[in-house]
């Protein structure tokens, strides 16, 4: 039977069962508490009342969800990505000045934004007032999304182009494994931008990167007539050109693009021998190396 019941019904049940005690919680008017007490009095039975706590204790729904998420097994995390999406945006060159319309629409409609601090600074004006998390490691982004199930549409900003030695590839793979829908908005690559500045095509260029990784520019030039390199960190213009000179390519033509798309960008050309003595600022730079003539004998001990 499903209560609450009237005083008469309660009294009938007490008499039918021959009960001497009525045990009830303090359920209030909606729970029929007054009718139970009246019935007990009419039947002359004792009453045991479980009263309400004097002070409510517990945690909020949000806190309960957070604690449960922390205890969730890995396979449960995978199922909770359903219906949620992450858009990976390649910022390209030039900060936020050369974002595509597709990227701008994704930024305008997102619930949260991830990326390195420099990336977030470049796009924050397009994203509105959303949480901006300075995260770019795939695992940390997934952990944040797992702990914030209300976030349905997130954006992760990647440096350069999403398809060229980008951190976007492992992030996309991890998100897909955990049930997230992933969309990729590529940026304008430095290779395409440099070719545009030079007024030429780049279909015959071999593309490689020395930004955060090592490569051998001299050996690359032995195999390919035109080599494009993305530079960064310890591998700047002078370092690459000194390695070219040591490998016998001091006469190779070198075209450098420095801070493409930013105010004060530079596009200059010379030989590897000339740029082996380069002492300027080469942050955010790239380089096109072209064979000119044949390789000379190896030159060692080249100094600036």
What does this molecule look like?
There is one protein chain. The protein contains twelve helices and twelve strands. The chain is α/β, with parallel strands linked by helices. The strands form three sheets. A five-stranded parallel β-sheet has the order 5-4-6-3-7, sandwiched between helices. Strands 8-9-12-10-11 form a five-stranded mixed β-sheet, with helices on both faces. A hairpin with a 7-residue loop joins β10 and β11. Residues 298-304 have low confidence and may be disordered.
Give the low-confidence spans.
Answer: 298-304
The N- and C-terminal alpha carbons lie at a distance of 95 Å
Mean pLDDT: 85
- Regarding quaternary structure, how should these chains be classified? single chain
Structural class, judged by helices and strands? alpha/beta
Largest sheet: 5 strands, parallel
Share of β-strand residues: 15-25%
Instruction: Please provide the ordered H/E string of secondary-structure elements.
Output: HEHEHHEHEHEHEHEHEHEHEEHE
Radius of gyration, CA atoms, in whole angstroms? 34 Å
Count of distinct strands: 12
Tally the helices: what do you get?
12
Give me the side-by-side strand order of the main sheet: 5-4-6-3-7
Helix percentage: 25-40%
Topology:
Blueprint: H1 7-17, E1 21-25, H2 33-43, E2 46-50, H3 61-71, H4 74-79, E3 85-90, H5 101-108, E4 112-114, H6 117-127, E5 132-133, H7 138-147, E6 153-158, H8 168-177, E7 181-185, H9 190-198, E8 206-209, H10 217-223, E9 226-230, H11 237-246, E10 253-258, E11 266-271, H12 272-275, E12 285-290
Helix pairs in contact: 1-2, 7-8
């Amino acid at each position: 039977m499903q209560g609450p019941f009237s005083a008469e019904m309660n009294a009938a049940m007490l008499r039918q069962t021959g009960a001497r005690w009525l045990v009830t919680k303090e359920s209030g008017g909606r729970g029929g508490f007054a009718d139970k007490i009246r019935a007990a009095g009419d039947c002359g039975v004792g009453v045991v009342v479980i009263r309400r706590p004097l002070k409510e204790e517990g945690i909020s729904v949000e806190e309960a969800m957070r604690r449960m998420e922390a205890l969730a097994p890995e396979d449960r995390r995978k199922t909770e990505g359903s219906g949620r999406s992450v858009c990976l945006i390649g910022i390209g060159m030039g900060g936020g000045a050369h974002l595509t319309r597709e990227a701008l629409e994704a930024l305008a409609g997102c619930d949260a934004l991830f990326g390195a601090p420099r990336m977030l600074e470049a796009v924050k004006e397009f994203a509105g007032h959303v949480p901006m998390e300075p995260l770019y490691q795939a695992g940390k982004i997934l952990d944040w999304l797992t702990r914030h199930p209300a976030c349905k549409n997130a954006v992760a900003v990647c440096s350069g182009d999403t398809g060229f030695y980008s951190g976007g590839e492992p992030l996309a793979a991890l998100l897909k494994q955990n049930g997230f829908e992933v969309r990729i908005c590529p940026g304008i690559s430095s290779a395409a931008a440099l070719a545009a500045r030079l007024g030429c095509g780049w279909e015959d260029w071999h593309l490689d990167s020395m930004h955060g990784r090592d490569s051998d520019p001299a050996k690359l030039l032995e195999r390919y007539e035109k080599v494009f390199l993305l530079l960064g960190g310890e591998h700047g213009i002078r370092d690459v050109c000194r390695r070219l000179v040591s490998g016998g390519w001091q006469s190779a033509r070198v075209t450098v693009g420095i801070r493409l798309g930013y105010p004060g960008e530079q596009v200059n050309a010379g030989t590897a021998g000339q740029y082996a003595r380069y002492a300027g600022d080469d942050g955010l730079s790239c380089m096109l190396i072209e064979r000119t003539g044949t390789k000379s004998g190896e030159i060692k001990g080249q100094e600036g």
